[in-house]
């Protein structure tokens, strides 16, 4: 069987795009802001729930809220798919509205998360945020109205569901990539601005930043809100890909996948994040048992290749931490005028001090 | 100077990592190539996807047993095809779904990219719901070996299910419990699509049809320690009144079932009421005298009772069990009742393709109900209804009893007849 790129490329593009947004989001908080948000999956899930609820309820209303069909069951999902296919404008509009609503909701929860971040640091903050993610997952898993409880909520159609299925998949992959790169470029611009260097000062020495008159709690709130919004957008993109909302999908592994991408690629380095996201996407593909069959190699190993996948990811993290703790592409000082002048004078280059930087650089 | 120093050793660790990864992947690929025997001339390969969870909290124990049952069916079919001189060979591709809609969706996409048009799996109703539209739109046949949720019973799609829905089993169990004189039931059930789906149906039937009273505890299947839940169950039984008309219903798999029983045997309240179980609780592990003697004694004391789809024992199921143990000496198909359905799902998938005469999802989907209508497998008849789900057959009631050697076993003592919805007790 020849490889069918009309399925493979959209899968890769969608996975990569969502991974990239998650990694950029975590890098912004941790790499630049020093806030280890290991509850990334919580913000991701918020986006999923918001997009899922908005889309399914709106499509249901468009269908006339049929009383004889259960909303939460597959029959309800079938109705929603039918409505989406018959109303291209509606599903496209709902998709865009979902992205915006998810981003705003994620940002709001990110801002709320900054309150514990004011009192907790490092490991304690990370543990609290992990717990928040888990508590929310368990709550939604047991409370049907949000995401269908243990069965999940089916019928969140691909925004191009009205097109032939392969075209719809391909277009959605492209759309996810566009959104991901928009987020990526925004993050680059943000971190190259004086605000980015303020973030770094927070990470490197919060006290010094305070001494220079910076409102560090507010900055923490900003960065957690921005990154929370990004993660929620990734969550919204995700539910339109799987076309279903299921609380059980939002497990801590997603947070650790984001961490892995940043560690492997390089902390506080956008190119590193790009490499990390690409690396994890390809690793996910090449360690799948189906991968050799793309080349007509049918192979049934005497062990379950699926277990090897998880071992490989863990092994890579250990190797990177042992031999290259700064990641494949380490952090570099921000190219400011002060740094260029220092280089020209032959002095040792040091990471810039935000207070000494040219505020117009960026 | 610091930057200069960094430059001199910038790529060496990265190279080390890259080399290690490349060596691992190249080694695996090389090994794979060595394993591949030269294909017979003009051999035609038909891939069968196995989207079966083998990791995750729900299926880490059961999943591998079910996967191996499907693999056994494929190996047996290939041996027969070879003996018959046919150029066709079925190639299995197993993708772990982790029991989640996300995993199932990714697995189906990855399998579709390999040209797979017929898939055995996924296992759960939640996963089935997630892949339904993708499978139907892309004409990929999905045969689930264990999805039983009523919510996923939809006509005119590419999803088929080898077991019947939970409806007949819940009706049978409610009727049996009523006929045995119990009016109050305390349920302890997995909080997943199987546990909740089955409990909902049972509760509804028992309350509305028989006027019974029901309490329920739903537990997280991923939780290792269920002592609190079992204490709550004992409290529920106390509230209902631990008399002769109160019973417990356990909806569990193997690991969680052992944990519940291990805790329950310590409770005098729970040891003095009759226990019933869903079909997923008929486990050989529960009756392992050397490993869990206290649990075996407890199950005998409480006359643990349940149902299983008939005919649970027929020539095909016996042959399947023997072949399974011969191929996987360390595994026991009885540990997962749904391994029988996995075996049948894989066989149905292959028979449908052979009947269609070509590897095409649309053709296979059209042939599958026809093939299934005359198929009798390890898990019984597979005649399908308009939703593509196996029509329920009769159910056999079992209870824990002692054989002539004083060994505990599941004794079959009654049959629930689907057509008439009546119970027939064996003499």
Query: Helix tally of chain B?
Result: 14
Return the average pLDDT of chain A rounded to an integer.
89
Shape of chain A: globular
Give average pLDDT of chain B, whole number.
89
- How many strands, what sense, and barrel or not for the largest sheet of chain A? 2 strands, antiparallel
Order of helices and strands of chain A: HHHHHHEHHHHEHHHH
Write up this protein.
The complex is a heterodimer of chains A (362) and B (427). With 362 residues, chain A is mainly α. Helix content of chain A is 69%, strand content 1%. Chain A is built from 14 helices and two strands. In chain A, strands 1-2 form a two-stranded antiparallel ribbon. Chain B contains 14 helices and 15 strands. Chain B has an eight-stranded mixed β-sheet with strand order 7-6-8-9-10-13-14-15, with helices on both faces. Chain B has a five-stranded parallel β-sheet with strand order 2-1-3-4-5. In chain B, strands 11-12 form a two-stranded antiparallel sheet. In chain B, helix 13 crosses helix 14 (361-373). Chain B is α/β, with parallel strands linked by helices. At the A-B interface, helix 1, helix 3, helix 5, helix 10 and helix 13 of A face helix 1, helix 2, strand 1, strand 2 and helix 4 of B.
């Amino acid at each position: 069987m020849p490889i069918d790129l009309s399925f493979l490329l959209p899968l890769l593009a969608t996975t990569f795009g969502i991974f990239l947004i998650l990694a950029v989001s975590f890098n912004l908080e941790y790499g630049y802001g020093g806030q280890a948000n290991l509850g990334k999956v919580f913000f991701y899930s918020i986006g999923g729930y918001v997009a899922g609820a908005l889309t399914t309820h709106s499509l249901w209303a468009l269908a006339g809220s049929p009383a004889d069909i259960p909303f939460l069951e597959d029959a309800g999902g079938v109705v929603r798919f039918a409505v989406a296919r018959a109303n291209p404008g509606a599903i496209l509009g709902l998709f865009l509205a979902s992205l915006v609503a998810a981003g705003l909701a994620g940002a709001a929860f990110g801002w709320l998360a900054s309150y514990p971040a004011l009192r907790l640091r490092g490991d304690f903050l990370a543990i609290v945020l992990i717990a928040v993610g888990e508590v929310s997952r368990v709550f939604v898993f047991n409370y049907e109205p949000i995401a269908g409880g243990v069965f999940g909520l089916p019928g969140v159609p691909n925004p191009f569901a009205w097109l032939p299925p392969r075209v719809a998949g391909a277009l959605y992959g492209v759309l996810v990539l566009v959104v991901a790169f928009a987020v990526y470029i925004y993050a680059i611009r943000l971190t190259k601005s004086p605000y980015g260097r303020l973030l770094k000062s927070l990470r490197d020495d919060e006290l010094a930043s305070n001494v220079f008159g910076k409102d560090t709690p507010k900055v923490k709130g900003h960065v957690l809100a921005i990154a929370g919004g990004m993660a929620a957008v990734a969550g919204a993109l995700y539910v339109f890909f799987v076309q279903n909302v299921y609380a059980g999908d939002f497990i801590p592994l997603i947070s650790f996948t984001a961490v892995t991408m940043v560690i492997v690629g390089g902390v506080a380095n956008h190119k590193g994040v790009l490499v990390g996201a690409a690396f994890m996407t390809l690793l996910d593909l090449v360690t799948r048992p189906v991968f050799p069959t793309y080349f007509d190699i049918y192979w049934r190993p005497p062990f379950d290749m699926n277990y090897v996948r998880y071992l490989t990811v863990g092994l890579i993290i250990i190797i990177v931490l042992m031999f290259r703790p700064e990641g494949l592409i380490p952090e570099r000082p921000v190219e400011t005028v002060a740094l260029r002048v220092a280089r020209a004078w032959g002095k040792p280059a040091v990471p810039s001090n935000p207070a000494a930087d040219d505020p117009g650089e960026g | 100077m610091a930057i200069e120093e960094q430059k001199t050793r910038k790529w060496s660790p990265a190279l080390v990592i890259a080399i290690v990864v490349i060596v691992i992947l190249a080694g695996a690929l090389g090994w794979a190539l060595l394993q591949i025997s030269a294909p017979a001339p003009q051999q035609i390969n038909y891939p069968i996807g196995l989207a079966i969870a083998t990791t995750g909290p729900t299926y880490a124990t059961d999943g591998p047993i079910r996967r191996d049952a499907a693999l056994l069916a494929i190996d047996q079919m290939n041996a027969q095809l070879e003996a018959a001189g046919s150029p066709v060979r079925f190639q299995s591709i197993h993708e772990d779904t982790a029991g989640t809609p996300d995993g199932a969706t990714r697995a189906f996409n990855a399998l579709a990219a390999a040209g797979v048009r017929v898939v055995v799996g996924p296992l759960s109703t939640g996963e089935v719901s997630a892949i339904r539209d993708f499978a139907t739109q892309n004409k990929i046949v999905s045969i689930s070996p264990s999805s039983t949720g009523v919510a996923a019973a939809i006509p005119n799609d590419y999803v088929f299910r080898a077991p019947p829905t939970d409806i007949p089993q819940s009706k049978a169990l409610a009727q049996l419990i009523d006929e045995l004189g119990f009016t109050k039931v305390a349920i302890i059930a997995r909080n997943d699509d199987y546990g909740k789906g089955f409990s909902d149906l049972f509760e509804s039937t028992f309350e509305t049809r028989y006027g019974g009273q029901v309490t329920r505890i739903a537990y997280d299947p991923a939780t290792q320690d269920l002592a609190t839940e079992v204490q709550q169950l004992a409290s529920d039984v106390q509230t209902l009144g631990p008399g002769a008309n109160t019973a417990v219903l356990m909806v569990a798999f193997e690991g969680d079932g052992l944990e519940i029983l291990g805790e329950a045997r310590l409770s005098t309240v729970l040891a003095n009421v009759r226990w019933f179980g869903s079909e997923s609780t008929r486990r050989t592990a529960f009756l392992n005298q050397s490993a869990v003697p206290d649990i075996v004694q407890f199950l005998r004391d409480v006359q643990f009772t349940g149902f299983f789809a008939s005919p649970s024992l027929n020539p095909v199921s016996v042959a399947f069990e023997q072949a399974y143990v011969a191929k996987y000496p360390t595994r026991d198909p009885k540990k997962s009742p749904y391994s029988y359905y996995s075996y049948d799902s894989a066989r149905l998938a292959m028979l449908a393709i052979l009947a269609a005469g070509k590897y095409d999802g649309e053709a296979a989907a059209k042939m599958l109900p026809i093939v299934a209508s005359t198929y009798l497998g390890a898990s019984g008849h597979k005649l399908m209804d308009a939703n593509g789900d196996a029509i329920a057959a009769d159910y056999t009631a079992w209870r824990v009893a002692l054989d002539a050697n004083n060994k505990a076993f599941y004794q079959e003592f009654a049959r629930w007849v689907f057509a008439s919805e009546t119970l027939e007790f064996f003499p």
